[in-house]
Amino acid sequence: MNVVIRKLNGLWHLIVGSCQIRTPFLETQDRQLVVQYARRAYPGARIFERD
Length: 51
Fold this sequence. Notes:
single chain; 51 residues; alpha+beta; four-stranded mixed β-sheet; Transposase
């Protein structure tokens, strides 16, 4: 499974397949928080980061 982390409309989003999931993190917050969140939500997934 691939998970893409992306900034969109002032928030971080996770894109999993064709689904876009809004996270509770603002884009001004550290990217590492979002990566940890994605790893907990989708264990074993490959995480890709886009700006």
